[in-house]
Amino acid sequence: MTKVFYAGSLRSGILCLAALCSVGVSFGAESAAQKKGRELLDKCLQALGGEAFLKMRDRVQTGRAYQFYQEQLRGLTVVAYSIRYDFAPSSPEPGWIGVRERRDFGKNKDWSSLFLDGKGYEITYRGAQPYPQSYMHQYRERLLRDIFYVLKYRRNEPGMIFESLGSEIVDLQPTDAIRITDPDNQTVTVYLLKSTHLPMRQEYLRRDPKTREVFRERGHYSKYRATDGVTLPWNVLLERDGEKIFEMFVETMEIDKGLEDTLFEIKKGMKVFKEEK
């Protein structure tokens, strides 16, 4: 049951959730669309909790996760996500992410995934197997474009552009669309519910670095609840090219538990295998 999730989209999973810019314009003053985009982004931040969201240092959530292939259920498991948010340094090193994440699968936590310092490992009783670079590239790309991460870490990053695209109807709901472009010209479009300003959907195009094949990645967020002043989605659904690949239903969530560093470390003496090519 557990191995199917490594091969599929669960390892691409939630970031979710995670857990989560200063507009740089090359030709002078920002446009009206960019000013509107900034205003909408600020409203979104306030809807998520404002300062409480920005100051959140860690998050623990448990629930049920489902993996799909060609719209058919391929696997399900109980999962616990533990996420640690580091303080952003004034001058981050190249490749700095700031998020440490542990995912424990199964009622007895039979196996785990660990992400730290730009590296990822599948941890079992046998040891720690590094995830291949191709997967970590996808993990990093997904995280850097995630609206919750952008709001927490990239709002004031030089060169970020937030542009309002106007109103759109998404799943029969009126939304405000924002296109976010980073200094590397990577974009993501986010749809905020007009009634709450909370993210309802985001989507972007991802190109496989080896095959050059293009995929449309889409995330849906719903069932928002407030926990200790922070409002986050308790239902996350991921699609690729229009097909559902992953869904999680959160059952419990805790904020700022004071997670220890050791939770995000490979245990001393554990065997670390060579990275698979």
SSE topology sketch:
Layout lengths: L2 H5 L24 H17 L2 H5 L2 E12 L2 E14 L13 E7 L5 E6 L2 E6 L2 E4 L2 H13 L1 H8 L6 E10 L2 E9 L5 E7 L5 E9 L6 E14 L2 E11 L2 E13 L22
Antiparallel strand pairs: 1-2, 1-13, 2-3, 3-4, 4-5, 5-6, 7-8, 8-9, 9-10, 10-11, 11-12, 12-13
Q: What structural keywords apply?
A:
alpha+beta; outer membrane lipoprotein receptor (LolB), chain A
What is the helix/strand order? HHHEEEEEEHHEEEEEEE
Going across the biggest sheet, name each strand in turn.
6-5-4-3-2-1-13-12-11-10-9-8-7
CATH class: Mainly Beta
Strand coverage percent: 35-45%
What's the name of the CATH homologous superfamily? Lipoprotein localisation LolA/LolB/LppX
Largest sheet: 13 strands, antiparallel
User: How many runs of DSSP E, i.e. beta strands?
Assistant: 13
Amino- and carboxy-terminal Cα gap: 25 Å
